[in-house]
Amino acid sequence: MSSRTVIRGGLVITASDELHADVLIEDGRIAALAATGTTAAEAFTAERVIDATGKYVIPGGVDGHTHMEMPFGGTYASDTFETGTRAAAWGGTTTIVDFAIQSVGHSLREGLDAWHAKAEGNCAIDYGFHMIVSDVNQETLKEMDLLVEEGVTSFKQFMAYPGVFYSDDGQILRAMQRAAENGGLIMMHAENGIAIDVLVEQALARGETDPRYHGEVRKALLEAEATHRAIRLAQVAGAPLYVVHVSAQEAVAELTRARDDGLNVFGETCPQYLFLSTDNLAEPDFEGAKYVCSTPLRPREHQAALWKGLRTNDLQVVSTDHCPFCFTGQKELGRGDFSKIPNGMPGVENRMDLLHQAVVEGHISRRRWIEIACATPARMFGLYPKKGTLAPGADADVVVYDPHAEQVVSAETHHMNVDYSAYEGKRVTGRVETVLSRGEPVVTEREYTGRKGHGVYTPRATCQYLH
Fold first, then answer.
1. pLDDT digits (tens, 9 = 90+) for 145-196
2. Contacts of 193-202 spanning 24+ positions with Cβ under 8 A
């Protein structure tokens, strides 16, 4: 039995086009688009008709960087796959790519299986996995080939967190060489963790224990140095490189230079770096702990370089690095010692709205909004054109977006399982009204109509940007 939906009268926005069109959805996929008012559009018939007059019709967001139920510093990220994907849907995101973790001494397969077990049957929207590689050895390298074949095509390494996720330059080079052969993409947390640990130790010895020192010891120059080193190692290996959560002007400059040299180097930033700053880390009474994440928030003057990078395509993607910890009982583990504050911030529900606010404020265009939030992450991680666009044959992951509705971001009204909002009290223009995932309504006129288990695991092709 076929099910059909028509979305009528909206402004369809993709990374490449804007047009007033009606969208026909059949059996979970987009069947056709036709200019509103034409004979072709009027011939669309369906059981369900959604009136999008005066609204935008956009592809569902693709968040390529989330951490649901992630273990960190003796606790776990507070969103489960169930709560986190529901919140994502409320915010207009219809696909996440989360990180499965290999623990030292264990295989990639064990880590991947553990994350499949957490996610399966619990997600409101579709999901894929990247693999965090914490233990590079001959077995791991062989497993990378197998994972690429089954649709886990990106591998994250850390130059930070010695003793936990850290890889040294030799391990990084070996993994990059393997990726160069098997078509995988290496994602890098680029911070010089060895040097940072020295600065942490020295700060604590001086009695500098407040959250703001988290930002001061994780210096922008050490992000830039690690970014430079990662680029050069990738160049030696002949491998592509994707640098996650770029926060500093100096790191953007390294990426820009590499891209000007024609290297396959890509960069992601996150809303927290575009909208927040060290002013938040310095909030009194330990409130700054809410904003502790790594890479850290930077002084406000770095924001201009990030916006410019997004406009010039030296940064290609905005993901959230959603990794929420409650202020009460979790962030508070670091009272009296900033190095014990769990690193991470909530944001999976806010990304699409914050980036629309950037359109309103003139930082980016509407099509660029869709490009950095939907189309490019889908292409980067081998999900396009199934995800990230509105075209015949694509999954019917569609958001009806009201560009005129005003809202105030608040923990009172968000759906993430965390007791604070990083953007508390921020006024934004634009709001998600209705969300379809593979043609099924997950949010219907601001009512949740989804269910856990609707979301399915989505194997990925390799990065679609490599030349």
1. 999 999 999 999 999 999 999 999 999 999 999 999 999 999 999 999 999 9
2. 193/158, 193/159, 193/160, 193/161, 193/162, 193/166, 194/162, 194/166, 195/222, 196/160, 196/222, 197/162, 200/339
- Reduced to 3 states (helix: H, G, I; strand: E, B; else coil), residue 324 is coil
pTM: 0.98
- What are the beta bridge partners of residue 266? 242
- Is residue 164 within 8 Å of 129, Cβ to Cβ? no
DSSP, residue by residue, 3-53 = -EEEEEEEEEE-SS-EEEEEEEEETTEEEEEEETTSHHHHT---SEEEE-T
Beta strands 4-13 and 48-51 are: parallel
Q: What is the C-alpha separation between 237 and 225, in angstroms, rounded? A: 18
Beta carbons within 10 angstroms of residue 39's beta carbon: 8
Contact 17, 370 (CB under 8 A): no
